[in-house]
Amino acid sequence: MRIQLSDHFTYKKLLRFTLPTVLMLVCTSMYSVVDGFFVSNFVGKTSFAAVNLIFPVSMGVAALGFMLGTGGSAVVAKTIGEGKKELANQYFSMVIYVGIALSMIFSVICVLFMPRIARMLGAEGTLLQDCIIYGRVLFVAETAFILQNMFQSFFVAAEKPGLSLKINIAAGLTNVVFDYVFIAAFRWGVAGAALATGMGQVVGGIVPLIYFARKNDSLLRLTGKVRLYGKVLAKTCGNGSSEMVTNLSSSLVNILYNFQLMRLAGEDGVAAFGVIMYVNFIFIAVFMGYSVGSAPVVSYHYGAGNHGELKNLYKKSLFLLTLGSIILTVAAEIFAEPLVKIFVNYDKTLMDMTVGGFRLFSLAFLLMGINVWASAFFTALNNGLVSAAISFLRTLVFQIIAVLALPALMGITGVWISVLAAEGAALAVTVGFLLVEKKRYHYGK
């Protein structure tokens, strides 16, 4: 039975509705993970480090897609909840077209200036050449990657999360197959890794574009003629600014982590952090997937004025995320060594460093779930300011303070626990906002 945004959500229905988005984001996170596995095992540590240096840049630019997707879907879902379907399609089309135009501009800029970007990240010699090759090939498909990130949210607003999951599974499989072909079989190195990733992103971004451009049975369709709604676009950017801040800040902070680890442990430190980030991408995708998957439901009931259902969604989300945080943390501690061995089993010193770092880093999973969800929750309520404040403090301010201060006191151990310290400070801020705003939005008692 098709689940609609207007339904009353039990635990079972909420999990069924959000599960496709969770799995979809897990598939998306697999791009860099699969690249890392093949590059590390078939090319070597230097090329592996190049992938770890450049991919955060791609993710930083792709933050544009998260901003327009999450912010736009909140506006569109709210408009649908108000009974204005045609206007919702106009808003949807405008956001997609603006996203295409902006992403193409950023892609060209990054391709042209990739040598300078790589040098700014500290790359030299062979590492520099690998960074340039990987980055230039990767950014050719950046527009498709940004579209993929946008459509992840719009598929949920269109009541088609299952279709989105199928498309993203196809994209992930495309990446895996061609990673094997280009890296393991053809020995194309980092160029093959970037090309395989780009082919997966084309599947994930262009197929949805074709789907929504044609007649379909979802709530949304791209229109041929659309005008620029300046206020709506500004509202979209404001609503989605927290998601943009989250992803852009993560990229910037990852670069800072790499600088610290290069100073403390050299190339091995960068490689170890890369492995930890690969596993982190998969684990945090669970929190992000639930948050993105449930946000349009919150937006719909907020627009429809269904305060009882907002309370229901708020209560159930807090319980599910708390339980999920405990489960993921325990799993990370238990499976730390097997997960790390997938990437660096060929180097015992590097493996031991990575396992120890990951076990400290994974303690942050206990706290980050509520923080990630709360930011998306306020985006869904069309309160971009609070959402952005949570994300800005969590992913940038607190992390920068932690990664600069703790290593000075504790060495490399301080690097691994920096995320835990930042998430703890962010949780205090998150709880404060949830308590202060509950009367305004009627999701509390």
TrEMBL record:
Record localization: Cell membrane
Listed GO CC annotations: plasma membrane
InterPro entries, per the entry: MATE_fam, MATE_MepA-like, MATE_MepA_subfamily, MdtK-like
Entry keyword annotation includes Membrane: yes
Transmembrane segments: 17-38, 50-71, 91-115, 127-147, 167-186, 193-213, 270-298, 318-336, 356-378, 385-409, 415-436
GO terms, biological process: response to antibiotic
GO function terms (MF aspect): antiporter activity; xenobiotic transmembrane transporter activity
CDD domains listed in its UniProt record: MATE_MepA_like
Bilayer topology: Multi-pass membrane protein
Record keywords: Antibiotic resistance, Cell membrane, Membrane, Transmembrane, Transmembrane helix, Transport
Keyword Hydrolase: no
Coiled coil (UniProt feature): none
Family label: Belongs to the multi antimicrobial extrusion (MATE) (TC 2.A.66.1) family. MepA subfamily.
Protein name per its UniProtKB record: Multidrug export protein MepA
Organism listed in the record: Candidatus Mediterraneibacter pullicola
